[in-house]
Amino acid sequence: MKQKRFLMGIDNGGSNIKCAIFDLDGTEVAAADTTPPTCQPREGFVERDPDAVWKCNCEVIAAALRGSGIRPDQIAAVSLCGYGGGICLVDRDGQPVCPIVVSTDTRARRNLEELYRSGAAGRIFEITHQYPWAGQPAALLRWFREERPALFSRAAFALSIKDYIRGRLTHEFAAELTDASNFNLVDPATGSYSERLFHISGLADSKRLFGAPLLHPASVAGTVTQAAAEQTGLTAGTPVAAGLYDVSSCATGSAALGAGSLAVTIGTWSMASCLDTSFSKADDSTIVTTSALDRHFLLEQGSATGAVNFNWYLDRFISKMYPDRSKRQLYALCDQAILQPDAQNKILFIPYLYASCTHPNGKGAFFNLSGHHTDQALLAAVMEGILLCANRHISLLKKGVSTPFQAIRLSGGICASPAWSQILCDILQAPVCVMEGSQQGARGAAMCAGIAVGEFDGFSQAAEAMVHTASVLSPRAQYAQLYALKANMYEKALKALDYFHEQN
């Protein structure tokens, strides 16, 4: 009798590292997660120790295997996804030459300013439809060359986080297409590195770091080495597929695979993305990357305005107000705060604690606070503010698509809260499909693994087999006017915030 086979997806996110195991029908058999230690040694620096990150990956892989109750040799293939941006510099032996730089790092902001002052940023945008940002390799490599020349000289490969971890699993180091297109050094029209982009970015001497051919997401990139097998519990020789950039992986894991299908992921970041055959009408703030599907581009809107802002309020305030309550009880308290939207609560929260979507110097803020407001009113405002920002991303994305959105597929940490998910549905005033399972990024990676070893013919077949809807939320018409008003107020608050930062 043929043994049952499973697929593993590993997701190295901005906050947590997750691993999930799926059967070929898409059932999430087991999942594990952990939080890697992050160091901020100086203002603007956000780093992680490479060995500590690898150890965290080993731990979640081993924990998922234990939780699944299956034998390691039943894993047909493994693949990965990870946050876009940041950088992992390794030497020819795959040894890190410096700490991993996380995508929220802003050390290269002066290098970034030079790209804008010189006009290079605009010329880059004309090719990639991406404006450079501080946590992107196009800016970070300039910083390393100028500030850490010895490390820069030692580096042989510049990798994304998931490509680095894949290299630790296989001892084969190479970049994958969707992640590389996030470097702002790939021409989306050709799907390959652009000599012109290296020249415009002032990185002609960095091209040596990108010498390996770009891998297709659903191609076999190597196999698990004996050393990695001993550390993870996987079977040596297990195929490892190249994988995806995490936004693309979440869209794939939500079956948002065609024009008219919108993937919304609200986790650490708030992201909205869709596939399209053209990006000629896309808003300037829409990022364009290559996709796993031929002749399609991934259009995305997003920022670090997601649940990371909620976690800040929960950890700094709510948990201290209710010290005797468990995490589960605190989450229940949060759900209660937004169960019935309050038309009298005019507080607006701008979730710019870690990044701004408008003015480059924008910071978080509360508007319309009064002495009678309670902690519950502020909590509701925080949760609504995150969703109002997500709504703004979705609205901007809508402007540039060739086909109106027919389906909205929701994933991310927000799905653990039915009340919070419902508020997003009420703001959008459109049905929202809540996806089954908790790990859509890992699911998208697992789909790549399945395709790579022939379990599926392609992404459409993989999605049909592995992606399922848990529930469909319907918008409550009685809140349409309330949230239309709040969305309008939110836009006015952003303009006021922009004015404040222009004057200061």
UniProtKB/TrEMBL annotation:
<dbReference type="Pfam" id="PF02782">
    <property type="entry name" value="FGGY_C"/>
</dbReference>
<keyword id="KW-0808">Transferase</keyword>
<protein>
    <submittedName>
        <fullName>L-xylulose/3-keto-L-gulonate kinase</fullName>
        <ecNumber>2.7.1.-</ecNumber>
    </submittedName>
</protein>
<dbReference type="InterPro" id="IPR018485">
    <property type="entry name" value="FGGY_C"/>
</dbReference>
<keyword id="KW-0418">Kinase</keyword>
<feature type="domain" description="Carbohydrate kinase FGGY C-terminal">
    <location>
        <begin position="262"/>
        <end position="452"/>
    </location>
</feature>
<dbReference type="GO" id="GO:0016301">
    <property type="term" value="F:kinase activity"/>
</dbReference>
<comment type="similarity">
    <text>Belongs to the FGGY kinase family.</text>
</comment>
<dbReference type="InterPro" id="IPR050406">
    <property type="entry name" value="FGGY_Carb_Kinase"/>
</dbReference>
<feature type="domain" description="Carbohydrate kinase FGGY N-terminal">
    <location>
        <begin position="8"/>
        <end position="253"/>
    </location>
</feature>
<dbReference type="Pfam" id="PF00370">
    <property type="entry name" value="FGGY_N"/>
</dbReference>
<dbReference type="InterPro" id="IPR043129">
    <property type="entry name" value="ATPase_NBD"/>
</dbReference>
<dbReference type="InterPro" id="IPR018484">
    <property type="entry name" value="FGGY_N"/>
</dbReference>
<dbReference type="InterPro" id="IPR000577">
    <property type="entry name" value="Carb_kinase_FGGY"/>
</dbReference>
<dbReference type="GO" id="GO:0005975">
    <property type="term" value="P:carbohydrate metabolic process"/>
</dbReference>
